Amino acid sequence: MSTSTILVPVVAIRSLYLFCAVRVLTGLTSASWFPGFYQLWAAWAPPNERGLLIGFAYAGAVSFVYCMIWFMFVYDEPKLNPRISMKEKTYLESTCPVIMKNSQGKIPIKSILTSLPVWAFIVVNIGIDWNLYTFLTSVPTYMREVLHFDFQQNALLSSLPYIGMWIGQLIFGWISDILLTRRILTLSVVRKLMNSIGC
């Protein structure tokens, strides 16, 4: 994903078709990245700490270096990591839910495709992504073409919402951890609430 993202500016000036192919490749690789990412968070982040930790997880071109470090130091489960103490392993294994191992059973595709929670999740994510990418592509153009901001003003003002999103992720992640730790709300309610605020 990071390699294809880095290639975008290079191929964009050469060919529209190549640009589209690289964007499709980025989408395909990110489609496999997210489930693995959340699987690792389930194994490594105790439920009452996930909200704050997830706010630190996103990067752009630097993700290539991050990826190399990831392959050297990250393990699927705490018990496989030779670098952490027994105390930390015990803590993570006692606070993180048991991860189901891959069974040889059939994947219930029909049940998945007819599940209302699955479709709710899909609709919410489409809405969030639509909003994000519309904002990402339209605001700088609007500021340049309609408001006639120069490059520096446009860059600064266009970056403010993303700085705000980053700060919001940290703050609301911390709040969600408090709500869970103090048992003020259930995990399901916290996720729905934070997703609604994020939209």
Provide structural commentary.
The protein has 199 residues and is mostly helical. The protein has two domains: 1-105, no CATH class; 106-199, no CATH class. The protein is 72% helix and 0% strand. It has helices at residues 2-12, 16-44, 50-54, 63-73, 86-95, 109-113, 116-145, 151-181, 187-198. The longest helix is centred in the C-terminal third of the chain and has 31 residues, at 151-181. The model has no long low-confidence stretch (mean pLDDT 80).
Kindly report how far apart the N and C termini lie.
25 Å
Give the helix/strand class. Answer: mainly alpha
* Biggest beta sheet attributes: none
> What average pLDDT do the residues reach?
80
Share in helix: over 70%
Overall, the morphology is: globular
- Rg, rounded, reads 20 Å
Number of domains: 2
Organism: Schistosoma haematobium (Blood fluke)
Membrane topology: Multi-pass membrane protein
Pfam families: MFS_1
Transmembrane segments: 12-34, 54-75, 116-136, 156-175
Question: What's a concise summary of this model?
Answer:
By secondary structure, the protein is mainly alpha-helical.
